[in-house]
From TrEMBL:
Keywords: Cell membrane, Membrane, Transmembrane, Transmembrane helix, Transport. GO terms for cellular component: plasma membrane. NCBIfam families: PRK11431.1 (NF008512). GO terms for biological process: xenobiotic detoxification by transmembrane export across the plasma membrane. InterPro entries: EmrE-like (IPR037185), Small_drug/metabolite_transptr (IPR000390), Small_multidrug_res (IPR045324). It is found in: Cell membrane. It is a multi-pass membrane protein. This is Guanidinium exporter.
Length: 104
C-alpha cells in the first residue's frame, strides 16, 4: 500500500510543478490555490509512505516520479523538446527508479 501512496504523492508533485507554470508567479488566484493544494497533498502522501518505506528510497522515487512526470507534461502541454538525449536521460532516471524499487 505504501508504494501506491508514494506513486500518488509523485503524481501530485507533477501536478504542483505544472501548476506553478499556470500561476504566472502566483498572480492568478485559482491556479495558485490548486498548486498549493497539490503541494500539500504531495507532501502529506510522501509522509504517509515514509512510515513504511526507507527514507532514501521513498524520497528518490518521489522526486523521480516528479521529474519524469514533469518532463512528460512539459512535452505534452508546452511543446518542450523531445530530443533523443533528453529522452535517454528520462529512460536512465526510470531505470534508477526501477532499481531502487527492486532493491527494497
Amino acid at each position: 500500500m505504501s508504494w501506491i501512496v508514494l506513486f500518488f504523492a509523485g503524481l501530485f508533485e507533477v501536478a504542483w510543478a505544472v501548476g506553478l507554470k499556470y500561476t504566472e508567479g502566483f498572480t492568478r488566484l485559482w491556479p495558485s490555490l490548486l498548486t498549493a493544494l497539490a503541494m500539500a497533498a504531495s507532501l502529506g502522501l510522501l509522509g504517509l509512505a515514509m512510515k513504511n518505506l526507507p527514507l532514501g528510497t521513498a524520497y528518490a522515487i518521489w522526486t523521480g516520479i516528479g521529474a519524469v512526470g514533469t518532463v512528460i507534461a512539459g512535452i505534452l502541454l508546452f511543446g518542450e523538446s523531445i530530443a533523443p538525449l533528453r529522452l535517454l536521460s528520462i529512460a536512465l532516471i526510470l531505470c534508477g527508479l526501477v532499481g531502487l524499487k527492486l532493491s527494497h
